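Many introductory courses stop at the sequence. We go one step further.
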Amino acid sequence: MVESLVNSIITMFGNFSAAPFGKEIITFVISLLPILELRGGLLAAGALNLNPLTAYVIAIIGNLLPIPFILMFLTPIFDWMKKTKLFKGLVEKLEKKADKHKEKFEKGEFWALVLFVGIPLPGTGAWTGSLVASVLGMDKKKAMLAILVGVLLASVIMMFLSYGVLNQIMYH
């Protein structure tokens, strides 16, 4: 799923990749997005033949940029949204998803969050990790550090896949 979304975005902005810093901007924007995040950014960078070191730094920065804001503001925003008819169901669904992972995080929450963010599987990543940490009331500094370590772990795995195995299969 991530690969097809990345390919769609690259196709949509294909001509933009030829502009100065176009590949870098595409990588950065994809890395900012929920669902795609760092995984998508590095897959796009590999497909665009962006320098691996440049891609690595840009994808990490793009993936981490929204995380402090999510950790700081998610709980107050969710509290407000639960008071509205329009968003109440959505918030309850997201909280239910986070509660589903609660047992995994109660014991060794730091390392559980690192692994949850760091193993690049569908439905995991910095955005979802921030959601889980916020809903569970995890200390924000501890959560940010765990998410940072998880993103670094995911980045190593995705660099290997994006510039190695998957890149060879998908784009050559």
